[in-house]
Design brief:
It is built from 14 helices and no strands. The protein is mainly α and 358 residues long. Helix 1 runs parallel beside helix 5. The two termini are 25 Å apart. The protein binds a DNA duplex (14 and 14 nucleotides) through helix 2, helix 3, helix 4, helix 9 and helix 10.
Length: 358
DNA sequence: TGCAAGTCAATACC
DNA sequence: GGTATTGACTTGCA
């Protein structure tokens, strides 16, 4: 029970189960009351809810992460190592709720709406400049499926289009956007389009397995020597210090398998449970990983998790039952998180930084 | 300067 | 209401 794993388990169950909610039965929880994912993201990882969701749903191979990209995982590890992490988080939640209620009461007594109070720094990150001026963001252009498909095809034909091509493309698609948005479409989303194409290529090639190699640059980027692709036999020896917010866990063994993770799990081409699938195919699991063997991950992902709260190690189901696709995603994310935690702990157990791996 | 990675935050979805 | 998606934006690097 004193282990970091247990603490994390408590935290997850505790947060989503929200034992505090019952304490405030007289007052309806505020709409901005942070959810588990949101609170964890904002207070522990320093990320917004959307970023946390993306991080867990689509983790990238460690060696592909920049120092900044690794930071959330380092924070996660430090949090896991703190035996009082859960208590602190719950305290934080209590304080936030208290502060919210205080603001709410004062604003009500002042005759102001709650909305204005909530847009403070507690709930908004980066929305205001240091000077207090609201930074105006361009309105989002919502692309339709046809437009996305066209962009994808355009990318396939020409990943690095010229400005003229961009304008032509925008015009062909009848995009009511300016040139900057065209640039956005072509450059900002490039990695996402590439990721989608990568998955499609793998699916077309029959999935990722030892020795399999696709034709995309990203596939070619995987080491395929020694018969087992990306087996981590090579090392760049890039060891960073913890003080530098990097835990120095360079490991290439996950590269190809990581990429195949989502593909295989979504294809469902295995008898394994989705959780095991994600674990065993994910590079995050790595050699020696207990994930999928013992089933002792923080988030146990049995089928029951999607139907009831039968097991207190399940990721709690919030709200109404979700569709199969959603459940799969949740399972996938939980499996990813299990692997991440496992690897963080494994890394932390080694005193010699050169032995750290992730 | 161009690009990729990372993140925010609006909005869609369930 | 919580979570997922994704366009807009920022940052860092070659």
């Amino acid at each position: 029970p004193e282990s970091p794993l247990s603490s994390a388990e408590e935290s997850v169950n505790g947060l989503a189960g929200d034992p505090l909610a019952s304490q405030s039965s007289s007052l309806k929880p505020p709409s901005e009351d942070p959810s588990g994912q949101r609170l964890f993201g904002e207070t522990i990882l320093g990320l917004t809810q959307g970023s946390v969701s993306d991080l867990l749903a689509r983790p990238k191979p460690w060696h592909k992460l920049s120092l900044k990209g690794r930071e959330p995982f380092v924070r996660m590890q430090l949090w896991l190592q703190d035996p009082h992490s859960v208590e602190k988080l719950m305290d934080m939640k209590r304080l936030e709720k208290k502060a919210y209620m205080k603001r709410r009461l004062s604003s009500l007594s002042d005759g102001h709406s709650v909305e204005g109070v909530l847009s403070g720094p507690d709930y908004m990150q980066g929305s205001q400049s240091p000077g207090g001026q609201q930074q105006l963001k361009k309105a989002r252009v919502v692309l339709g499926p046809e437009e996305k498909e066209a962009l994808k095809k355009a990318y396939q034909q020409k990943p690095y289009p010229s400005p003229k091509t961009i304008e032509e493309l925008a015009s062909q698609l009848n995009l009511k956007t300016n040139f900057d948005t065209g640039l956005n479409l072509c450059f900002y989303s490039r990695s996402r389009i590439r990721r989608e194409l990568f998955i499609e290529e793998i699916q077309a090639a029959g999935g990722v397995g030892p020795g399999s190699e696709g034709g995309s640059p990203s596939l070619r980027g995987c080491k395929s020597g020694e018969g087992d692709s990306c087996d981590g036999t090579e090392s760049e020896g890039t060891v960073e210090t913890r003080q530098g917010l990097g835990i120095g866990l360079e490991d290439h063994r996950g590269a190809c398998k990581d990429q195949g993770m989502e593909v295989e799990s979504e294809a469902g081409a295995s008898n394994n449970s989705p959780a095991q699938l994600d674990c065993t195919t994910s590079g995050l699991a790595g050699p020696g990983s207990s994930c999928g063997q013992s089933g002792l991950g923080i988030f146990s992902l049995t089928e029951a998790s999607s139907t009831s709260s039968a097991s207190n190690t399940n990721i709690p189901s919030s709200g109404p039952a979700r569709n199969p696709r959603d459940n799969n995603l949740r399972k996938k994310k939980a499996a990813n998180l299990n692997n991440i935690i496992h690897r963080l702990e494994k890394a932390a157990s080694k005193e010699d930084p050169s032995e750290w791996e992730f």
